[in-house]
Amino acid sequence: MIAPGQRISEAELASQLKVSRISIREALKILDAQGIVVSRPHYGVRVAEFDDRRIVQLYEIRCALEKIAVRDACTRRSELPALLRRLDSIIEKMERNLERDDLIGVSKADLEFHHAICLASANELVITLWDALSRHMLIVFEQELLGDAERPHIVDHHRALRRAIEKLPPRKLGQEIEKHIMRLRGISRPS
Fold first, then answer.
1. How many CB atoms lie within 10 A of CB 7?
2. Following CA atoms 167, 168, 174, 175 in sequence, which dihedral angle do they give, to the nearest 10 degrees?
């Protein structure tokens, strides 16, 4: 695993993955454009560092984006039963991963849950932005790996959010999604 801030050697990575340096270079260009790695002259290519400031920014952006997604998804009432079934399925997957202590699986299921809400919004810009943001969130989740205090409650938090999506009006849902997202960081945002 390559740590945040660590320099990436194209030659070493190409050798490890048994691919050409050209393939590695192209992949690094894509990751640089996504903000996953940072490339600078005389600095080389390094894995982006996710310090507290950047993590807070990611959570804030994610919160704003998902408020739009949940609002739009809930205005499509005829599509809501399919979304709720999808969310139930993802929660079951999350629960199985938690029972196996598969924290990466839990993190991926968490992101899948929120991605389903974005897809249900049918808002193409929200979906595009979520896809880019989710790569960063997976890194953050892996870095934080759900602290011991939070881990047993992750499934319950998602079940509560799923119930809120089913029952609450869009305005209240915005508040619920914000509480849900920001709880991990203990971040309070001005309204």
1. 11
2. -110
Yes or no: say if 162 and 143 are a contact pair by the CB < 8 Å rule. no
Q: Where are the alpha helices (DSSP H) in 34-169?
A: 52-75, 80-99, 103-121, 124-144, 154-167
Q: What is the CATH number of domain 52-182?
A: 1.20.120.530
* Partner residues linked to 8 by β-bridges: 45
Look up residue 67 and give its amino acid. K
Q: Which residues lie below 8 Å from residue 82, measured CB to CB, with a gap of 6+? A: 120
Q: What is the CA radius of gyration of the chain?
A: 18
CA neighbor of 90 nearest in space, from 131, 62, 119 = 119
Angstrom distance (rounded) from CA 58 to CA 185: 11
Query: What stretch of H or E contains 95?
Result: helix 80-99
Q: pLDDT tens-digit profile of 48-105?
A: 777 888 888 888 999 999 999 999 998 887 888 999 999 999 999 999 999 998 888 9
Q: Which residue's entry shows tokens 């704003």?
A: 64
Q: Which CATH number describes the domain made up of 7-47? A: 1.10.10.10
Query: Six-digit token pair at 62?
Result: 């994610």
Does the global pTM surpass 0.90?
Answer: no
Q: Boundaries of CATH 1.20.120.530 in the chain?
A: 52-182
Query: Where do we find the tokens 């953050």?
Result: 140
For residue 148, pLDDT beyond 90? no
